[in-house]
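A.,

Following up on our hallway conversation. Structure tokens first:
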């Protein structure tokens, strides 16, 4: 027996089951890059990685092949429909309809036998037989109308018909088995048919469980392993601890209580009477009632008081009703898990096979894939878990920038921006990965492969290969010019209100990616500004969001950008992306002051910072989104004073303007024209 129990426990050690591919399963290939790309816009817009993951879980995902992972909203709606279908199509009257029908058949059989006896007594003039038949008919007529009363009355009735007696005995045995099975289902999901010995073991199990539960509630040490060694075959779920065991049992017992709650008062009374009459094992009843009371106290949120309103025409018998309430309970549990899942890892506890049974293959497949999302992104190096939350890795930040840069470059036409050919070569530090014939005075960075190829071409095949100065070919180098850039990004509330925030943030990410990959010696800083300005690291850009405080404080932004560039070398510039005129400045106390329309003091203080930037040889290039007449006039004054450039653009082509201008400017620095 112990070996059989250990085998049962070992066979159910995993919460998931796997089967060989048979061609019918729905395949859905998730790729980490696709998943990360799907959530990038949401992440950039709201600046919250964990919220972006949750929204992707809610909305679902479609891969490049058109295969779709259902989102939580869709699955919860399907769950609601499945539950409502059950309630709309069925009713609980069938629990007793079948019993009543079989009882009527028993009574009809007995009445026929009594009538035959009465007829025979009339022929044979048998007064005793006639009296017996008449008494039997009277006794049947006086039977209580309720099922419990009829069952109890027939138990003490002296049947005339052996066939009726057999029918009644069969009905009693069937009902006893069904009611007993209900207790079995509440106590154990492992045994379908129980022998008397099994029933005795179940009572022992329940007594031991109640004892262990009471010790657990008192905080005393319990022998869970010893309990499972002796009674583990009752629990195919293979609970790992007493908490998991009690939760599984509480769920079963709560489902049965919900069925009772959903019955009419008359139906509940009949159930009670049938149970009292048929289940004469009061020790089992007492243990079950005690366990239910204890579990209800431990798991008050399991829905013990919940009921369902059935409105259908299809009656359910007792076994069907019990199964339906188990299904409804599992639907409720699945709904609670799904609604409470704050990240994909929380779905690992879902029984996927059960979810497939309840919601269908597509939903089951989607839940299984959804539970893998965070692990896939972690394995791909995009996410890392810290203090219970996910954070972006350095690789993820690079990926966002590369994607943004790639999107913008693909949008540009090749004649507007491309890989510009160098027009000037000379001595420098950066390899250009191009070669030229050696000339006197060139650094002797000999390109061996092309030099040997020139010699072979000139002298023909064979060895040894003889080199002459005319064969020498050397690597070109670029002039090394350093550029320092600070991007000023407007985070005022008007940016998201006018749909400018996400395009502007993508440009910031793309510019960071361009500088860090193509011009690694260059410097890039970032200043965000709204009511006040903040210096941030470019790596923090993905999780930057807009500011709900009113104000566009260019004065503070220019001040921080100028201080950052003072610590840098090379050519210096500020790239400012904004959609509003300056409406805020810092007071002498350091507090922000806001006014709309812009106050003269705000304009004056902002222009003073522009003058300071100009004196420090910092160029200010401004990219205006949704420019008003006032903003246009103000930026033109900045441009005239500073010598920078102004671009009037929209959120559709802001990236074109910023990247084209930056690359063209960078090329001019290198070529000198």
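Then the amino acids I'd put at each of the 673 positions:
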């Amino acid at each position: 027996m112990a070996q059989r129990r250990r085998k049962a426990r070992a066979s159910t050690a995993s919460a998931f089951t796997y089967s060989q591919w048979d061609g019918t399963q729905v395949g859905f290939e998730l790729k980490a890059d696709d998943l990360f790309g799907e959530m990038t816009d949401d992440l950039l817009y709201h600046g919250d990685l964990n919220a972006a993951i949750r929204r992707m879980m809610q909305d679902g995902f479609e891969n490049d092949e058109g295969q779709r992972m259902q989102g939580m909203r869709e699955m919860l709606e399907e769950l609601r429909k499945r539950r409502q279908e059950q309630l709309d199509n069925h009713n609980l009257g069938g629990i007793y309809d079948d019993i009543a029908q079989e009882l009527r058949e028993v009574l009809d059989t007995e009445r026929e036998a009594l009538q035959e006896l009465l007829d025979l007594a009339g022929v044979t003039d048998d007064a005793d037989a006639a009296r017996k038949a008449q008494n039997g008919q009277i006794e049947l007529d006086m039977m209580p109308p309720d099922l419990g009363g009829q069952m109890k009355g027939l138990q003490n009735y002296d049947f005339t018909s052996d066939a009726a007696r057999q029918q009644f005995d069969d009905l009693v045995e069937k009902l006893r088995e069904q009611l007993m099975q209900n207790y079995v289902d509440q106590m154990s999901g492992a045994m379908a048919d129980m022998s008397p010995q099994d029933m005795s073991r179940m009572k022992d199990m329940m007594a031991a469980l109640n004892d262990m539960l009471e010790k657990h509630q008192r905080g005393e040490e319990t022998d869970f392993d010893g309990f499972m060694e002796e009674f583990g075959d009752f629990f195919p779920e293979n609970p790992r601890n007493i908490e998991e065991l009690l939760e599984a049992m509480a769920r079963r017992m709560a489902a049965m209580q919900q069925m009772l709650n959903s019955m009419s008062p008359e139906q509940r009374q009949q159930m009670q009477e049938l149970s009292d009459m048929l289940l004469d094992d009061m020790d089992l009843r007492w243990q079950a009632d005690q366990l239910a009371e204890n579990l209800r106290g431990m798991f008050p949120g399991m829905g013990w008081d919940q009921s369902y309103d059935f409105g259908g025409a299809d009656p359910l018998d007792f076994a069907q009703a019990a199964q339906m309430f188990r299904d409804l309970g599992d639907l409720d549990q699945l709904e609670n898990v799904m609604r409470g899942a704050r990240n994909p890892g929380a779905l690992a506890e879902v029984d996927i096979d059960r979810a497939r049974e309840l919601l269908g293959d597509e939903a089951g497949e989607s839940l299984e894939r959804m539970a893998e999302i965070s692990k896939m992104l972690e394995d791909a190096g995009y996410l890392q878990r810290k203090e219970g939350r996910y954070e972006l890795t350095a690789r993820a930040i690079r990926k966002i920038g590369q994607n943004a840069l790639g999107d913008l470059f693909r949008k540009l036409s090749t004649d507007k921006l491309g890989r510009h050919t160098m027009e000037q070569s000379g001595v420098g530090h950066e390899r250009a990965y191009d070669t030229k014939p050696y000339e006197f005075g060139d650094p002797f960075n000999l390109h061996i492969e092309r030099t040997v190829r020139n010699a072979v071409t000139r002298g023909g095949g064979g060895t040894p290969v003889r080199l002459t100065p005319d064969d020498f070919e050397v690597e070109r180098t670029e002039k090394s010019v350093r550029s320092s850039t600070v991007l000023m990004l407007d985070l005022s509330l008007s940016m998201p209100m006018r749909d400018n925030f996400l395009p502007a943030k993508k440009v910031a990410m793309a510019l960071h990616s361009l500088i860090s990959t193509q011009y690694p010696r260059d410097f890039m800083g970032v200043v965000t500004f709204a009511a006040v300005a903040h210096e941030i690291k470019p790596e923090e850009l993905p999780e930057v969001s807009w500011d709900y405080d009113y104000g566009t404080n260019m004065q503070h932004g220019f001040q921080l950008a100028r201080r950052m560039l003072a610590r840098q070398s090379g050519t210096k510039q500020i790239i400012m992306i904004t959609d509003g005129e300056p409406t805020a400045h810092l007071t002498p106390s350091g507090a922000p002051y806001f006014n709309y329309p812009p106050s003269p003091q705000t304009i004056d203080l902002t222009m003073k910072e522009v003058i300071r930037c100009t004196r420090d040889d910092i160029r200010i290039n401004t990219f205006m989104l949704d420019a008003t007449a006032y903003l246009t006039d103000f930026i033109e004054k900045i441009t005239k004073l500073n010598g920078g450039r102004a671009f009037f653009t929209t959120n559709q082509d802001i990236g074109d303007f910023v990247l084209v201008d930056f690359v063209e400017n960078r090329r001019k620095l290198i070529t000198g024209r």
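The CA atoms of residues 583 and 598 lie 5 Å apart. Curious whether your intuition agrees with the design.

B.
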